[in-house]
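Request:
You are asked to prepare a plain-text protein record giving the amino acid sequence and the backbone structure tokens, at your earliest convenience.
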Amino acid sequence: FRLKPVNIPPSGLVNDLRRLMIRDDMSDVSFLVDGQEVLANRSILAIRSEYFDCMLFGGMRESLRDEHGKAAGGPIELRDVSHPVFLKVLEYLYTDTIHDLTWELSIPLLIASEQFMLTRLKALCQDHIRTRITVQNVICVFRASHQHNATGLNEIAQEYIIKHRTDPA
């Protein structure tokens, strides 16, 4: 009997799903974000987000499809999110991760994660923001965390303010 372990290749699922994000020919829903069309897969969005499940399969106008399976009314317009932020939301929905998140996108992504009911993404954003709090941005972080129910981040911002209350801005 051979007792050596079998060589198992690493999982390719995340890379395959990342590739699916850029395959326009495999998409079945389109969004209009900042005047730009963004294509996606209804099933992936719906299974990963209750918000998109209700939107795409829950009887709302956006769930209606034509004979080709495309949205009957054309692209679904999203007005409350920017194009770069929506692309990060899609990256998260497809891969359960976010890479290369900039400071400029972190708070808008936190807000979008609450809008789209993405608890894990919201926590990832809070953790990212937490490590980048400065005297210059702490009030912005405090305000955003308070307005968007990011209680852990709110507490961290409060502690930072108290600790650095005598620091020049």
Summary: Helices lie at 13-21, 42-48, 50-57, 83-95, 103-115, 119-130, 138-147, 151-163. The CA atoms of residues 143 and 168 lie 19 Å apart. The beta strands are 29-33, 36-40, 76-78. The radius of gyration is 20 Å.
